[in-house]
Design brief:
By secondary structure, the chain is an alpha+beta fold. The chain is built from 13 helices and 12 strands. 40% of the residues lie in helices and 21% in strands.
């Protein structure tokens, strides 16, 4: 067991800028945060006495890495407000957290114990055409509940082939979606545009017309959405693909995996490696190989999670398409 300050710093170093506050009524607050590798992902076992944990827009802006966190409640209860859903997670239930969206987690009464599988967002969304339903829980009655349990149980079969990245989107699949034009809020419309673009970005032949058809907008409406948010279709698509490559490079470095950088770039939707190298260097200030060499467990992860750099009041120009900040979450 560790004191709150040590527990909180471990949480932030492992998950990013989630801000925790202990219940002041609890004396001698002590918890645990144990991180282990399970197959190809990191899984944290968290023992949390009464406390409140928040993911704010400030925290989202401070983190470069994007994840889905697959939570499995083991003991106690955790109240969660996330992605428009308010649920009480009980033992045996699962929930998907999206690090690009605001969240509130609260533990009251008895301590809670839960598992958290850290899934790089780019790998979860690879080859997907629908965004997983964050904030919605899965109960033991769900057909895929047992399969999810098997991936996280210490005694289960080891997942060495990345099966979890196929299973989680399937388990948390959304139903039919309406077009962006049916959303009354401008910021909600652009969020849907950005999410759909992210899902389709691996297609080297993606066009404005294809994206317009998928979002239920006309070509002119879609271009206006980008313009009103300070970017263009091409800029947003390029940034999305670069972020996907960077996410996969970080994941590969952390787990000692070997994969040709060109293969990752092609998988993200780049069709010209020379163009990819130039745009990658322009955004990250180094070559893809140089970026990979710096992505170590004690480097990027700790640096991103504990950076003392001031939080920008507004996103830089042309970055309205990035997923670190989602206006729809306020």
């Amino acid at each position: 067991m560790t004191c709150f300050d040590h527990w909180n710093s471990t949480l932030r170093a492992s998950c990013g800028h989630y801000y925790a506050a202990p219940d002041r009524a609890v004396r001698d607050w002590t918890g645990t945060f144990n991180l282990r590798q399970r197959g190809c992902v990191d899984v944290a076992e968290v023992h949390c006495p009464p406390a409140r944990i928040e993911r704010t827009r400030k925290g989202i802006l401070r983190d470069d890495q994007e994840h889905f966190f697959l939570l499995r409640q083991m003991e106690g209860e955790t109240g969660i407000l996330h992605a428009g859903h308010e649920v009480l997670l009980q033992p045996g239930e699962f929930l998907l957290l999206d690090s690009t969206r605001a969240a509130e987690l609260s533990v009251s009464g008895r301590p809670a114990v839960f598992l958290s599988a850290h899934l790089p967002r780019a790998l979860v969304l690879e080859s997907r055409r629908e965004m997983p339903a964050a904030g919605r829980k899965i109960t033991p009655a769900h057909l895929l509940h047992a399969s999810l349990c098997g991936l996280l149980d210490a005694g289960g079969a080891e997942d060495t082939a990345g099966y979890i990245f196929d299973l989680v989107p399937l388990a948390f699949a959304n139903g039919a979606r309406q077009g962006a034009g049916s959303l009354g809020s401008r910021k909600h419309r652009f969020r849907l545009v950005r999410e759909t673009l992210e899902l389709l970005s691996g297609d080297t032949g993606l066009t404005v017309d294809t994206l317009a058809a998928r979002t239920g907008l006309s070509r002119r409406q879609l271009q206006r959405e980008f313009q009103e948010n300070g970017t263009t279709f091409t800029e947003c698509l390029t940034r999305t693909r670069l972020d996907a490559v960077a996410g996969k490079l970080r994941h590969a470095a952390r787990h000692g995996a070997r994969m040709p950088i060109a293969q990752i770039a092609y998988g993200a939707g780049f069709g010209d490696i020379s163009h990819f190298n130039r745009t990658f260097r322009r955004k990250f200030g180094c070559s893809p190989r140089g970026f990979l060499s710096t992505c170590t467990l004690g480097g990027f992860l700790a640096q991103d999670a504990n950076s003392l750099a001031p939080v920008p009041k507004t996103p830089p120009p042309g970055r309205g398409c990035l997923f670190q900040s989602n206006p729809a979450d306020g």
